[in-house]
Amino acid sequence: MLMLSKEPLSFLVVGWHKIFLCKMQPDGEEVWNEIETQSFELAEQCIKTNYYGVRGMVEALTPLLQLSDSARIINVTSKLGLLKNIPNGRVKGLLNDVESLTGDRIDEILKEFLKDFKEGLLKTKGWPTQLSAYTVAKAAMNAYTRILAKRYPNFHANCVSPGYCKTDLSANTGYFTAAEGAEGAVRLALLPDGGPSGFCFLQKEMLTYF
What predicted TM-score, i.e. pTM, was given to this entire model? Predict the structure, then answer.
């Protein structure tokens, strides 16, 4: 039985006509600021959709997955959600502490992020300043995937980034087709018993630190 989660980038207003400038100057903060308009309300919605939406769906379907002898959970993530994109070392350490990680701890981190966002303290407190909520939500989802792998050893729970694909979401500015982006998820769906669980994949590349 397979469960695949894919949540939309529904948390910001994007100036798509600027995205080509961003591709030419990917580290230009001024360009990013022109591309995106973040607000607390949209950030809160992003966390609800991209983290709590996934978590709620997993919890609702887990009883059905437990009836299967080949349960697969594939959470679609993004390179933005890698821990290297979160400057805050303490938060990074908490999310990477697989042995102590719990859903409650992730909740606390997300509440802290939203509080700092609302108070305008993202940079001061070491949070990402571009695509902030999406980055943090995906990092939280990656961490939750590791919790699932530990909690349900008979499942195969992994997350995968399809890469920057040519879809409506990216205004067709991506490097990969939708079919190419789907290859990683399909591969994980077809994992044989005994395959990896609790990992993050960049398309087909397995990461050990994420």
Answer: 0.85
